[in-house]
Amino acid sequence: MSKKKLILAVITARGGSKGIPRKNIKLLGGKPLIAYSVGAAKKSKLITHTIVSTDDKEIAEVAKKFGGEVPFIRPKKLAGDKTPHLPVMKHAIEFMEKKLGIVFDYAVIFQPTSPFRLPEDIDGTIAKLIETGADSAVSLVAVDSAYHPLKMKKLAGYKVLPYCFPEPEGLRHQDFPKVYKRSSAVYAMRRDLLMKDNRLYGDNIAGYIVPAERSIDIDTPFEWLRAEWMLEDLKKKDYEF
Predict the structure, then answer these.
(1) Is the CB of residue 76 less than 8 Å from the CB of residue 149?
(2) Domain match, 76 and 27 both
(3) Within this chain, do residues 136 and 150 fall inside the same structural domain, yes or no?
(4) Which of 45, 107, 127, 157 is the most exposed place for a label (fewest CB within 10 A)?
(5) What would the pLDDT profile of 170-181 be if each residue is shown by its tens digit?
């Protein structure tokens, strides 16, 4: 029997949100936003350890209230507006490996701004990573035809030109080739990709498709309103978060 993989999930929750102040603990459907990520991670069958990485003591207390583990307060130098995920993840892995005396096989990033991920999204993405032997795996969502790359244009003086791909004249939107973007729900990667190669995605990236009806990355007040509407619609379809 193969050894169980050690997988660390890190919920990254910085305190200095500007677009929506105190976003990570703002109530969505009567529950703090971060609680959705904590709950989904705890239901995963593949994740072995889940922590919250935050620089904010109030976020830490809210996360703990909903079952989250907060083993440290993130250093301020890793909590700036422009701080990338790579050093945040390396700090979390180093701390937890030293604390537990183990070496993880994989790491997973959860952003609280994608609250409608399900445990099957998490485990499906992780399984795709393990099965393919890829460097990383990300959740993907199909792009609506209204925002398809074929429709993207640029201006050269007065001339309208394709931004990246020419749009065949008369092509119906139903016939556009499928295109996807990262859904922001699940990012999974090899531990050594982060710790040894100093990279987040690598060259070999696997994709796991999730439905558009549950895909959102809340960054603006308008997206918050959309998330509230989505939640009500999902509840009518018997989803539980």
Answers:
(1) no
(2) yes
(3) no
(4) 157
(5) 888 888 999 999
Domain span at residue 81 reads: 7-142+179-236
216 and 151, same structural domain?
Answer: no
pLDDT at 175: 87
CA angle 48, 125, 109 (to 5 degrees): 60
Q: Which residue has the tokens 């040894």?
A: 196
What digits encode the pLDDT tens for the residues 95-138? Answer: 999 999 999 999 999 999 999 999 999 999 999 999 999 999 99
- Tell me the CATH number at 194: 3.90.550.10
Kindly state whether residue 72 falls inside one of the protein's structural domains. yes
Q: 240: how many CB neighbours lie within 10 A of its CB?
A: 7
Q: How far apart are CA 60 and CA 52, in angstroms?
A: 8
Q: Strand, coil or helix: what is 185?
A: strand
By CB neighbour count within 10 A (0-12 exposed, 13-18 middle, 19+ buried), where does 5 fall? middle
138 and 148 fall within a common domain: no
Inside any domain, residue 2: no
Is 1 contained in some domain? no
DSSP per-residue string spanning 22-45: TGGGSEETTEEHHHHHHHHHHH-S
Q: Look at residue 198 and tell me whether its pLDDT is greater than 70.
A: yes
Largest CA distance in the chain: 65
pLDDT digits (tens, 9 = 90+) for 141-151: 999 998 999 99
Where does the pLDDT of residue 2 fall: very low under 50, low under 70, confident under 90, or very high at 90 and above? Answer: low
CA-to-CA separations, 45 to 130, 200, 215, in angstroms, rounded = 14, 23, 21
One domain, residues 50 and 81 = yes
Query: Phi and psi dihedrals of 20, rounded to 5?
Result: -130, 100
